[in-house]
Amino acid sequence: MSDTSQAPIATQSEKLSWYRRLYLRVEALSSSKHALAAMLGVSVIDGSVFPIPPFALLVPMVLAQPRRWVRYAVLGTVASLFGGLIGYWLGTLIAAGAVDFLNIDLNVRVQRFGVDATVGELLGQNFWVLSLLCSVLPTPFKVVAIGSGMVSVPLDRFLLAAIIGRTVRFFAVAGVMRFVGPTARKWLRV
């Protein structure tokens, strides 16, 4: 009699990556009595360190209560902006540490193609446009916020880009879920 021990069949949770398991846990919070608080918390920490976007909660919440879509979008936007400020602050700390540690000089002057500015000035003056685009597009907001702080985007420009971008993103996602419904979830990647 041969010993033909079979390998145990892998369960569904073993096949999922850590990210997917975390995403599903966050998404499951949308059906709890603390769904709104969870979405606000995820929106804040999404701007700095958390890998799961707040839309994992926003989408099922709007699908469950479509009449509250504006409320959810407004509150999510405000919480996300607060998280963006935290991310921006982290970026300034990272930049200060990296500049000091690596002895990087951002005051190198660029004088080519009609440009006459330092590297730091060029990054700070123009990065806010990228911040605006990435706040709307499905780019992790923490990358936008921390990056803006790292390259010293003026705070007023960062805030303007974040306010416009995050408002558009939250209202677009919530609005599509409200007016198109569950069928939109198939083609809307959040």
From TrEMBL:
Keywords: Membrane, Transmembrane, Transmembrane helix. This is DedA family protein. The chain crosses the membrane at residues 35-57, 69-90, 158-180. Signal peptide: none annotated. GO terms for cellular component: plasma membrane. The keyword Transmembrane applies.
